[in-house]
Amino acid sequence: MKLWSGRFSGATHPALDAINKSIAFDIRLWPYDIRTNRAHAKMLRSVGLLSADELRLLESALDSVEKEFSDGSFEVHESDEDIHMAVERRVTELVGDPGRKLHTARSRNDQVATDVRLFTMDAIGAIREQIRGLVAELIQAAERSIDVVLPAYTHLQPGQPVLLAHHLLAYVEMMRRDDQRLDDAAKRAAVSPLGSGACVGTSLPVDRQMTADLLGFSSISRNSLDGVSDRDFVLETLSALSIVAMHLSRLGEELVVWSSKEFGFCRLGDSVSTGSSMMPQKKNPDGAELIRGKAGRVFASLSGLLTTMKGLPLAYNKDMQEDKEPLFDAVDTVSLSLEMARVTIETLEVDRNRMAAAVSPEVFATDLAELLVLEGLPLRSAHEAVGQLVRLAESLAKTISDLTADEVATAASEGDEPIDIAFVQKLGIEHAIRSKSIVGGTATSEVQTAIDEAKIWSGNAQ
Ligand code: ARG
User: Which of 137, 344, 369, 406 could link 382 by a cystine bridge, Cβ 3.0 to 4.6 Å?
Assistant: First the structure.
């Protein structure tokens, strides 16, 4: 018998049962449903809707149900549509009549919204912990490689020399914004809808502040219709998780490219690589590829739920039951990807020589133009002059650093001063890095400051 069967005659069609049931996935909410029930029962007692004895019985039944869930002995019945019905059904089996009062002044509509909010708040906390774990690895890798130089790329073409530490810290910045976004999403999740009832609240004298406080919410919802039908907090979480996944996919892609034979900038640990079933020589970066690939399903969760929510009339609609699977999947996927990224960075072996070898002298061209600007040349003239030098070097199959003083002298346009060879001689990795001492630049001192600062915000400072 269904808990709502009062006004119905006959059984539901199996197709309806199949499409309607959410217990297969929302069983995951059991810890939150138990918590919500405990708080609700306490509140019902405090406003006089339960006797002290009834509360005691309900609390001991909830303890038993909690135990059954934790030790795996909870039996889901055919009639259990969702986790809320399953818990209430079992509590009533255990204590009889008081169980029939547990749902007083409540609907599954405000109950599910409460449970999902509690789940989201916990999940965000756990993901933020993992972000800090990955950040700790990135910071350590940055510290180990504070003197490693590689080209910074734009359009995947070598641009200018950069410290590897600076490159790694760019990911730390992304993770930092992710952390802020998740923190922000958690704030809006921390609003208690309990008491909104099915849609317009309840005529029974509930104490909404009490349940909110017991459950650790920071405030209560201001509108009952919105209280039961708001899933913005799920969408915001999915959006923040999508951006995390997008960042991780960029990291994954860089590791795939860097570990390729052609780049050879790093070797991925054996523990995060796999072999080929056909090609014996292969060592494939599957972990990094899947970090990249998993982003797709996280974005799908976001766009899927946006589509579900779009156009829904107020207030609760059963469509909203479709919020849970995308949320759970995105949380699990991002969690797994963060762990994969963390161990990949932990076991990463950087080939500093290959990185240094990729710093071909052309990547000093911008430095040369800037040296000329410091001498008073307009930027456009400096850019033009250096461009000509690069073209000359290319035509002689040389790099700009190999040009002789005479060759350098011939590179100027009609009527322009030729570039002084002394400037060309100044160029090099040492000058390139040292000269970028502006805030946020790649000079060692700046990068060291960024490392120290990142350690503080991420709680990794000793
Ligand atoms: N399983 C439902 C969900 O996840 C719970 C709320 C059902 N409410 C209702 N009136 N049928 O959304």
Answer: 369
